[in-house]
Amino acid sequence: MFFTYIKYIIDRIVYGKDEGKIMLYDYLIVGGGLFGSVFAYEAKKRGKKCLVIDKREHIAGNIFTEEIEGIQVHKYGAHIFHTSNKQVWEYMNQFAEFNHYVNSPIAVYKDEVYNLPFNMNTFSKMWGIKRPEEAQHIINEQISALGIEEPSNLEEQALVLVGKDIYEKLVKGYTEKQWGRPCKELPAFIIKRLPIRFIYDNNYFNDRYQGIPIGGYTQIVKKMLEGVEVKLGTDYFEFIKENKDIAEKTVFTGMIDEYFQYALGVLEYRTVRFETEILDTKNYQGNAVVNYTDGEVPYTRIIEHKHFEFGQQEKTVISKEYSLEWKQGMEPYYPVNNEKNNFLYEEYKKLASKESRVIFGGRLGSYRYYDMDKVVEQALKLAEAELS
């Protein structure tokens, strides 16, 4: 009888299973990645009590870095922070000092090496020319010779943007590996534009601010979540069965279709498999990011992690990335934002609008691929609207 009474009191006061409904937390935040952590940090500053849960055994989501051989390894792929938003740049710098790393990837096609993005260094290597007008002339001639007026697929769209040589060596193989199907079978709108620079500049991004946090990204999220209760290795759908009324509101950063038990259908993603190796050499490839654009090479790129922080360690760590078709149970990385999936997402969005106590956000909750600065912007915007 005593234990029954105690359970009744707990149910009533803590879990809100009565008319009074005194919740234990203001916000249950599902996902300890960048979006959820920024929101938790802002909510905590405003005196809100939050619980962050994550199905993984670590915080920081896909920006998680772990130290191996003294090197900060980007476990879920390269993450280079870049933004033109001064407010976001200063916001992130309160949690870590950023170095001056500039993303300048290179592309390997068979035995040839090219600079990315497409710039005068690329064109000089490809055609043996020096001046911008020479490169423009070659590209324009190739585009004119194709006679494509209305591109009907990705291949045709890319050809009318960059011409035959660049497409065949630096676009076709990489894109087909990334999407898992021939370019002729991909819609044209996937490549709205391909950046071409007629200057000798290998900086991949145009943003004013760019860098890598010295000591990795995990420390940033750890600081954001100081003073916030965190439960790792916790599946939301199992957790909520026993804790239905644990919080006033839920911030859900998982897959929106999974939240609704795939009631309208399954949204499509591409996923990535990583093969990470420790090598007994100081310098394996001489650059942090090397793309392999030849279709016969099974991986899309190799990351050498030490170069993000100009490391001089005696060993090095590399990760090969393989793009794969996503299946339920796998980690979703890149939304397939074609017409069919975008329509399905809009239908799920209608369902989400009826959930008065649930807020959907982040890459999976919004079914959009976001750069990190846009994730921070989105989380701060939500915090301002929700917590002011």
Provide a short characterization of the protein structure.
With 388 residues, this protein is α/β, with parallel strands linked by helices. It has helices at residues 2-13, 34-45, 86-93, 120-127, 132-146, 154-162, 164-179, 218-224, 236-242, 256-259, 339-352, 362-366, 372-387, and strands spanning 25-30, 50-54, 65-68, 71-74, 81-83, 106-109, 112-115, 209-211, 229-232, 247-252, 269-279, 289-292, 301-304, 316-325, 334-335, 358-360.
Report on the structure:
The chain is of the alpha/beta class and 388 residues long. It is 34% helix and 20% strand. It is built from 13 helices and 16 strands. The protein has a seven-stranded mixed β-sheet. Strand 3 (65-68) and strand 4 (71-74) form a beta hairpin. The radius of gyration is 24 Å and the shape is globular. The two termini are 45 Å apart. Residues 1-20 have low confidence and may be disordered.
